[in-house]
Amino acid sequence: MSRSDVLVDAAWVEANLDAPGVVLVEVDEDVSAYDKGHIRGAVKIDWQTELQDPVRRDFVDRVGFEQLLSRKGIANDDTVILYGGNNNWFAAYAYWYFKLYGHENVKLLDGGRKKWELDSRELVVDVPSRPETNYQAKEQDLAIRAFRDEVVDAIGSKGLIDVRSPDEFTGKLLAPAHLPQEQAQRAGHVPTARSIPWSKAANDDGTFKSDEDLRKLYTEAGVDLNKPIIAYCRIGERSSHTWFALRELLGLPDVKNYDGSWTEYGSLVGVPIELGEPK
Amino acid sequence: MSQGCAAPAQTAHLPATVDLGNEAVIQGTVLRGGDPVSGAYARLLDASGEFTAEVVTSEEGIFRFFAADGDWTVRVLAPGGVSVDSAVTAKTGEIAGVEVAI
């Protein structure tokens, strides 16, 4: 697999805005961004209301995913190009969902919405209408999803990467610094996890660093790229970004995203937690 | 889930649910020729220069972070290759103000 199989740049998107079989999808938590302006032809997916189960903490199930994509006018053989705000966090999360439910051809727009805006490229407010499809999803591919027991078992054996900011890792902060800090769970990190913030995989403009830089980043932080790896953050979307870098860009075979992440782990009774700098 | 990871609205007044007594707020405005700049990207870097958070400025050019006590850098990015750094010190119970001219 090469980088162009999973990542496209803004120039490619501009050249393919009207290409048949190519569907642009903007994924945000704050959907007002899409409403104020989006790439021409892009449909929106609301991370919170459309990708999450409305009651229990989990994703939309297989049938829910099929209904969502059918409603959005996305077909099984479409090439889906995902992009969004927050340096593509939610777009990377959606990418992981698409892979989880077996969509063949899905790519990220490198740099997402930020790079597009910083380049002063065109944004429109017209909402496209796409005819409904009959989307068929596969069963979840659990080779890319980690659950809590597997994370506890991975302590000291598999590679664990904590992609939150250094202050969340040490326990100084409980959430990223753009959010209020009052939370129920305990602070800290999973013992033996390496602290490699997601942001180290990206440039200031939101584009991914080169394969060579990425390999160097994880290796120098003490991650054995030949071992299975689990990435986590607070709720699983920043770690989707790192999962994308490791599995899709570097092509590592066994990389999972722990979507329960710190809001689950830090609330579990009796699991080991470490504070302070990585040991 | 009740809360995701995207930033709350970047308003001039703290959201009513936030108790300033527990927060070290860094808040500011991005200005160009004295006018507020909306849609700029404000990045918060910690004392070692590591990225911590990023928000997009509001219609009034406002950005806000919930940091911790200590020294921080706010980096503002805008179209045209603009990148401006401002040093700021945060303290729990206070709002550290920053004005960034680009």
Describe what you observe in this structure.
Chain A has helices at 10-15, 32-36, 47-50, 62-72, 85-100, 112-118, 148-154, 166-170, 211-220, 238-249, 261-265; strands at 7-8, 22-28, 43-46, 79-83, 106-109, 145-146, 159-162, 194-195, 229-232, 255-258. Chain A is of the alpha/beta class and 279 residues long. In chain A, helix 5 packs across helix 10. Chain B is an all-beta fold. Chain B contains no helices and eight strands. In chain B, the strands form two sheets. In chain B, strands 1, 2, 5 and 8 form a four-stranded mixed β-sheet that branches. In chain B, 37% of the residues are buried. Chains A and B meet through helix 5 and helix 6 of A and strand 3, strand 4, strand 5 and strand 6 of B.
Please give the domain count of chain B.
Answer: 1
How many independent structural domains of chain A? 2
Major sheet of chain B: size, sense and barrel closure? 4 strands, mixed
Task: Give the SSE order of chain A as H and E letters.
Answer: EHEHEHHEHEHEHEHEHEHEH
- In the CATH hierarchy, what is the class of chain B? Mainly Beta
Q: Mind describing the biggest β-sheet of chain A?
A: 5 strands, parallel
Helix content of chain A: 25-40%
Poorly predicted runs of chain A? none
Whole-number average pLDDT of chain B?
A: 88
CATH architecture of the largest domain in chain A: 3-Layer(aba) Sandwich
Oligomeric nature of the chains:
heterodimer
Record keyword descriptors for this entry.
heterodimer; A: 279 residues; Oxidized Rhodanese, domain 1; five-stranded parallel sheet; 11 helices; B: 102 residues; mainly beta; Immunoglobulin-like; four-stranded mixed sheet; four-stranded antiparallel sheet
Summary, kept brief:
The complex is a heterodimer of chains A (279) and B (102). Chain A has 279 residues and is α/β, with parallel strands linked by helices.
